[in-house]
Design a protein that fits this description.
Layout lengths: L2 E3 L6 E3 L1 E3 L11 E3 L5 H9 L4 E4 L3 H8 L4 E6 L11 H6 L1
Parallel strand pairs: 3-6, 4-5, 5-6
Antiparallel strand pairs: 1-2
């Protein structure tokens, strides 16, 4: 399982998980539905606050994980298949 830094906390969390996974404590994070609005993401990152992005497609997952500010990506329960994505292939072809 690939992990990312959880904001400025010094902890690591799974980079990709199902919504509701206790390994990703969303109550500590800025949770957004995509990476279209970069200002709040950048502000949270600068403050050391973790950023979590919800994603419902492979393209959404790729776009979110391309942002270094993003600590984790959450997928809906009905899209567990996204946990099996080959992220290297998706990113580099």
């Amino acid at each position: 399982m690939r992990e990312r830094w959880w904001g400025g906390s010094g902890r690591r969390v799974p980079e990709l998980a199902v919504e509701g996974d206790p390994a990703v404590p969303v109550e500590e994070a800025l949770v957004v539905d995509g990476v279209d609005q970069l200002q709040p993401i950048a502000e949270a990152f600068e403050a050391g606050r973790p950023v979590v992005v919800r994603a419902a497609s492979a393209d959404d997952v790729r776009a979110a994980l391309a942002r270094p500010e993003v600590a984790a990506v959450l997928v809906p329960e009905e899209r567990r298949d996204l946990l099996e994505l080959d992220l290297t292939e998706l990113t580099y072809g």
